């Protein structure tokens, strides 16, 4: 017998809607920041994290319920996607006083 998988049309439609919503959010971020690049990373059972870095150095992230939905969303948005968050890509991030204060607080137990 052939090994087949049953695909739930409702679940598939829900995943498609979620990917489309994430793609719209990514596109809006890109428009607000003069363009954007991203990276998708697994975050365990919670799904996948889409890290976005704008051309102006602004950054943000979104969480998708699955890695496949995250990949679909970034593909629909048309942004450049990096394999990892390092090197030139990471250097594009511009942090402000809030981030520096927050990072210092973590280091000193705050």
Would you mind describing this structure in some detail?
It is a single chain. With 110 residues, the chain is of the alpha+beta class. It contains four helices and four strands. The chain has a four-stranded mixed β-sheet, covered by helices on one side. Strand 1 (36-42) and strand 2 form a beta hairpin. The longest helix has 24 residues, at 9-32. The protein is elongated, with a radius of gyration of 17 Å. The mean pLDDT is 88.
Short descriptors:
single chain, 110 residues, alpha+beta, 4-stranded mixed beta sheet
Structure, briefly:
The protein has helices at residues 9-32, 67-77, 87-91, 97-107; strands spanning 36-42, 48-54, 59-64, 80-82.
Counted beta strands: 4
β-strand amount? 15-25%
The stretches of 5 or more residues where confidence is low (pLDDT under 50) are none
The ordered H/E elements are HEEEHEHH
Q: Mind describing the biggest β-sheet? A: 4 strands, mixed
Strand order of the largest sheet: 3-2-1-4
How is the topology of this model organized?
Blueprint: H1 9-32, E1 36-42, E2 48-54, E3 59-64, H2 67-77, E4 80-82, H3 87-91, H4 97-107
Parallel strand pairs: 1-4
Antiparallel strand pairs: 1-2, 2-3
């Amino acid at each position: 017998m052939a090994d087949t998988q049953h695909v739930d049309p409702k679940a598939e439609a829900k995943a498609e809607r979620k990917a489309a919503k994430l793609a719209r959010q990514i596109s809006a971020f890109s428009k607000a920041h003069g363009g954007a690049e991203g990276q998708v990373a697994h975050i365990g059972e919670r799904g996948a994290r889409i890290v976005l870095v704008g051309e102006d150095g602004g950054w943000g992230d979104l969480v998708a319920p699955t890695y496949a939905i995250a990949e679909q969303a970034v593909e629909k948005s048309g942004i450049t996607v990096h394999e990892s968050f390092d090197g030139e890509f990471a250097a594009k991030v511009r942090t402000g006083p809030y981030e520096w204060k927050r990072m210092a607080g973590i280091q000193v137990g705050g």
